[in-house]
Automatic annotation (TrEMBL):
This is Secernin 3. One of its GO terms (molecular function) is dipeptidase activity. It holds the Pfam family Peptidase_C69. It comes from the Eukaryota.
Length: 418
């Protein structure tokens, strides 16, 4: 399996429009996989409780933060998401010298969710993820089949003041702080000589493996990447195109800028084919702690033919039923061993309707154009409403309890009109 999935972006002042941080990610996954958007409130736990992740159980913490997640419906973790403290995390598949084949452990997507549930800052998320990595390891199939598709993970993590890039190889890792400007990652190691945190044995391990002579300046990407770059050529071109588009808007990067980048098909950032963009997210996080963050999720494939719908953390949010997939409990083929002996229907309500509309857009040019225009109009209206909240704060939190769900219903109404 060639690395051909996912791009994650973050922009911080002075590259952004206003005093805010813009986070964005496309989740590129198998084309038949359903991605759901779900919400989990904060929760307290008793000592000794366990949490069942995708493949293994681990010790639960005393308190988890409220999270909004965009996740493949068959697993516990998430491709991307945010928590109530405006922490955002997205992960990327990376491959290097170290084999990614191993026993079932934590998936990178599990680590995304665990970081969001347990950390209040980006730097704390680095600590949470690396401590879990050291204790439990990473491993297991990352696709809902018996292909044994495995990879290591990199993470782009942001909060109200800064971002961190965390890259892993097995249990070894390096992290870099990003305090200004913009950064994007694809499916290749990107940390070079600026390393702000690292596994204490990371350099000795590389030296013992013969990857580093112990004398030249240590460069994480050079040392831990493949000796040949042929395997990561596709991600390299997407990375360069993403970086170029960020630079073109440097100084005034906005949510709309990020959405445009995620929709770009010429660069393959918006991917089509056997691997395609199955979900997208853009977050706007003001530096001012008195102002809320706004998190836009599509919950549907192909952002070019999707609506970015807003979510804001307030108390008493209801479950996001229209974007939550059916649950099969302990009978789920992904949970029973041997795993993946069948593949149940995981399509949620919005996915089903979107699938029909996408077919109409493909088949009927004029009708498809009208639908797309109506989708964009709805999205623009929502973004205009969110600008007021981003500037002046939340005046009536109770009115935002169903913000995302009501936006989904408006999207469904647009589809039903056509």
């Amino acid at each position: 399996m060639q690395p051909s999935s996912c791009d994650t972006f973050v922009a911080l002042p002075p590259s952004t429009q206003g005093q805010c941080i813009i986070f964005g990610k496309n989740s590129d996954r198998p084309c038949d996989e359903v991605q759901e958007v779900v919400y989990f409130p904060e929760k307290d736990y008793d000592a000794g409780e366990m949490v069942e992740c995708t493949y293994i159980e681990i010790e639960q913490v005393a308190h988890t933060y409220a999270v909004a997640l965009s996740k493949p419906a068959w697993l516990w973790g998430a491709e991307m998401g945010a928590n109530e403290l405006q922490l955002c995390i997205g992960n990327e598949a990376v491959w290097g010298r170290e084999s990614a084949d191993g026993d079932e452990a934590l998936l990178g997507m599990d680590l995304v969710r665990l970081g969001l549930e347990r950390a209040d800052t980006a730097e704390k998320a680095v600590d949470v993820i690396t401590e879990l990595l050291e204790k439990y390891g990473q491993g297991g199939s990352c696709m809902e089949d018996e292909s044994g598709f495995t990879y290591h993970n990199s993470f782009l993590i942001s909060d109200r003041k800064e971002a961190w890039l965390l890259e892993t190889s097995g249990k070894y890792w390096a992290a870099e702080r990003v305090e200004a400007g913009h950064r994007n990652i694809s499916n290749e190691y990107d940390i070079t000589t600026k390393i702000d945190k690292e596994h204490p044995d990371m350099r000795d391990y590389a030296k013992n493996k013969g990857w580093w002579d112990g004398k030249t300046k240590f460069n994480f990407a050079t040392v831990y990447s493949f000796a040949t770059t042929g395997r990561i050529g596709a991600s390299g071109s997407r990375y360069c195109e993403g970086k170029r588009m960020l630079e073109e808007s440097n100084g005034h990067i906005s949510a709309e800028t990020m959405m445009d980048i995620l929709r770009d098909k010429d660069s393959d950032i918006n991917m089509e084919g056997m691997f395609m963009t199955t979900g997208s997210m853009v977050s706007v996080i003001p530096r001012d702690p008195a102002l809320p963050g706004v998190h836009y999720f599509t919950a549907t494939p192909d952002p070019e033919r999707s609506v970015f719908k807003p979510f804001i953390f307030v108390n008493n949010i209801n479950q996001l039923k229209e974007t939550t997939s059916p649950s099969y409990g302990p009978d789920d083929p992904a949970k029973k061993k041997p795993r993946f002996q069948s593949k149940p229907n995981r399509k949620h309500k919005l996915f089903i309707k979107h699938e029909l509309v996408a077919a109409i857009i493909d088949s009927y040019k004029d009708r498809g154009k009208k639908i797309t225009e109506s989708m964009r109009k709805l999205e623009k209206e929502k973004m205009t409403q969110m600008e007021e909240i981003l500037s002046h704060g939340v005046k009536e939190p109770d009115l935002l309890v169903n913000l995302f769900s009501s936006s989904v219903k408006e999207e469904l109404a647009v589809y039903s009109q056509k």
